[in-house]
Design a protein that fits this description.
There is one protein chain. The chain contains two helices and ten strands, in the order H-E-E-E-E-E-E-E-E-E-E-H. The chain is α+β, with helices and mostly antiparallel strands. The structure holds dinuclear copper ion. Dinuclear copper ion binds next to loops.
Length: about 190
């Protein structure tokens, strides 16, 4: 069989390398395809725009509305803001084996979100709402990292994702600070009486 690359190249060694590099590209492309299917990796397809400079004035991304919310079908939505250099809220708790939809917006520059050992990863582009929907089969303490260089503090931009067994999960978060203030107020009241 005649080497088809003979038309563009006379040197035999060079032609051999053309074939080797072609084979490498095919193998890597194939691997990418296989891994994407077996690990359920797919590009986030949500396209939704938002004014990054006015996040705090938007209803969804206002400070009080961030965090974990339950949807009527039992799945969860986690609303977060990424800003130099942190994710807000800094600690998120979700149950295992539940569909969780992360909706993340950047308040300033390009960030990323990546939860190692899971398929949760996306870019957070200013001006857009990034969406990732996934479920976590294994309970544990996960890091929620920024994986796009965003400035000098990029290295320390991360949050904590706690995945707890489904049976132990509750959306009712005790608010110790508020309880303390109430108690303090009561104490003052007692003193006055
Ligand atoms: Cu945010 Cu790197």
């Amino acid at each position: 069989m005649q080497d088809i690359f003979k038309i563009i190249c006379d040197d035999e060694l060079e032609r051999r390398w053309i074939w080797i590099s072609l084979a490498m590209a095919v193998i890597m492309g194939g691997l990418l395809g296989v891994l994407a299917v077996t690990n359920n990796l797919h590009p986030p397809s949500n396209v939704e725009t938002i004014d990054s400079s006015r996040l705090h004035l938007s209803e969804e991304f206002a400070e009080d509305n961030l965090g974990v919310k339950e949807n009527s079908d039992g799945s969860l939505t986690v609303t977060m803001v990424a800003a130099r250099y942190g994710f807000f809220p800094p600690v998120i708790e979700v149950p295992t084996d539940t569909m969780v939809k992360f909706r993340v917006a950047s308040a300033d520059v390009l960030h990323g979100m990546h939860v190692p050992n899971t398929n949760a990863t996306t870019m957070i582009v200013p001006g857009y709402i990034s969406e990732v929907t996934t479920a976590f089969p294994t309970a544990g303490k996960y890091a929620f990292l920024c994986n796009e260089y965003c400035g000098l503090g990029h290295d320390s931009m991360w949050s904590r994702l706690m995945v707890v067994p489904k049976a132990e999960f509750s959306l009712e978060v005790p608010e110790p600070e508020e309880a303390e203030t109430e108690e303090a107020e009561e104490d003052v009241g007692d003193d006055l009486l």
